[in-house]
Amino acid sequence: MAHSHSSSVNFFGSVNKVVYEGKNSTNPLAFKYYNSQEVIGGKTMKEHLRFSIAYWHTFTADGTDVFGAATMQRPWDQYKGMDLAKARVEAAFEMFEKLDAPFFAFHDRDIAPEGSTLKETNQNLDIIVSLMKDYMRTSNVKLLWNTANMFTNPRFVHGAATSCNADVFAYAAAQVKKGLETAKELGAENYVFWGGREGYETLLNTDLKFELDNLARFMHMAVDYAKEIGYTGQFLIEPKPKEPTTHQYDTDAATTIAFLKQYGLDHHFKLNLEANHATLAGHTFEHELRMARVHGLLGSVDANQGDPLLGWDTDEFPTDLYSATLAMYEILQNGGLGSGGLNFDAKVRRSSFEPDDLIYSHIAGMDAFARGLKVAHKLVEDRVFEDVIKHRYRSFTEGIGLEIAEGRANFKMLEQYALNNKSMKNESGRQERLKAILNQYILEV
Ligand code: XUL
Ligand code: CO
């Protein structure tokens, strides 16, 4: 397999570099809203949005679902084994360049096949990591995060760090150790844990407390090893309530925050929040972002969306402007994502099987978030919701309210106040009016 950078092989031959053409463009291979160099509030769109392409959905997946076989025959699928892994790297970097995507993300097993032993698996990984490093040297693309796939292989049937089998725990540790070395080698800005099988199916066979303790022990070992090798990227946990297990330990932002605090991990980890995981947990995406933000733990985002009619993780590309706007609102209020980014943990539909769909889908997602950024910036700038919220809580800025807010009140004092209070008057929350204003901003900005 050839590996010269300025692509001797051209996997997306029909696609030139995708450029910004503006909202009136009818060119399907152009950005309508994402103008990478446009400055919004002192930062370029590229700096704000920090888009990342997910290796697994875009270069490894083939459209297989539980009812049917692969629909996607990619140009790189003409190769097998390690040659296929190398071809994927070429395809990936060609696409990153064509979309001018600043970041990418992968699981260890997305990029290189497992061998017959852990040693052989690590050797396969080393070959691809060094190839990626070569490509990264001559391109501007950086690794947003890497992670360990500890859910596909049958050895993880009972979990990885929460397995009842200590040998599996040890194997998982070896895998994450290698993952951290990979993160260091490629300069990953973050290292992610998504507990694919860290959950349970029935309490009848589960020692829940022991599994949680082990999960925390595992995370602490990861933090210690990162320190030992001098890896300084941000650790992230990605909450998800169910699928594949019935109950996942990192169910949602609040549950994960409680876990991190309980085990003294909150200074080492932030959250990677995914839109479709939020909705699976019965929350809006913006709820999860807000919950993490107010705890100072908003780290990164897996940008996708679920189908409101389906109750599983469909990982669609994010095109919903309403959701993208409210997500960007939280991100702006957070002062950005720091070392995090917007990772398209999203896959084209099984019926969108042509290679060009991979480009169209990313353009759709990038344009949606670019638009969301612009609207959210204007909402923040005009203090649309801040002023409403400030006004709504004004009773806590003076008198008895101020006593409560500043921690000087107690029940006896409040009872006295309530007994003497002759006029208690509530005001409308005005949510329909606020939603209409939000629509005006989405339509007019
Ligand atoms: C699974 C999911 C993962 C994580 C990384 O639902 O979102 O792809 O993002 O393991
Ligand atoms: Co994800």
Automatic annotation (TrEMBL):
Its main location: cytoplasm. It comes from the Bacteria. GO terms for cellular component: cytoplasm. One of its GO terms (biological process) is D-xylose metabolic process. Gene3D superfamilies: Divalent-metal-dependent TIM barrel enzymes (3.20.20.150). It is found in: Cytoplasm. It is an enzyme of class 5 (isomerase). Keywords: Carbohydrate metabolism, Cytoplasm, Isomerase, Magnesium, Metal-binding, Xylose metabolism. GO terms for molecular function: magnesium ion binding; xylose isomerase activity. Its EC number is 5.3.1.5. Belongs to the xylose isomerase family. PANTHER family: PTHR48408, XYLOSE ISOMERASE. Homotetramer. This is Xylose isomerase. The gene is xylA.
